[in-house]
Give the backbone structure.
Amino acid sequence: MLKKKKTEKKKEVYALGHHISMSADKARRVIDQIRGRSFEETLMILELMPYRACYPIFKLVYSAAANASYNMGSNEANLLISKAEVNKGTTIKKFKPRARGRSYPIKKPTCHITIVMKDISVDAKYVEIDSLKKPRWKKKHRAPYRDMYSSGGRIWDKK
């Protein structure tokens, strides 16, 4: 886990996806899972999630990493998703013919996705705090395992 030291503006790279044909709410469900994570962890999450929105987001994250390695010369292992947002796009409207000469509107929503990545090796404001983190659980002292079959039949003798 990474923690911010100070706030200063550093160079960031981004990738934009406009007019992606899916609802903004469905894409936002996936974006909320990857915001603030590292590049490698994000790729693993997106490959294993069962949603249709994962593939275009995967392509955008990969594109942002390619932009970072080309423009800034940074290593992909040091990249962090600093900002990820989904905005509602235009709605494609068509009319489908129905019975008795009527028409039925079909609305296909689109969305705009923005992925912003930051190189944390260049940025001195992040420090590693995994070793400082305390575990959430505490090991409880448990009684040793008691086998009811080898206890001499005391349990089964009671009526």
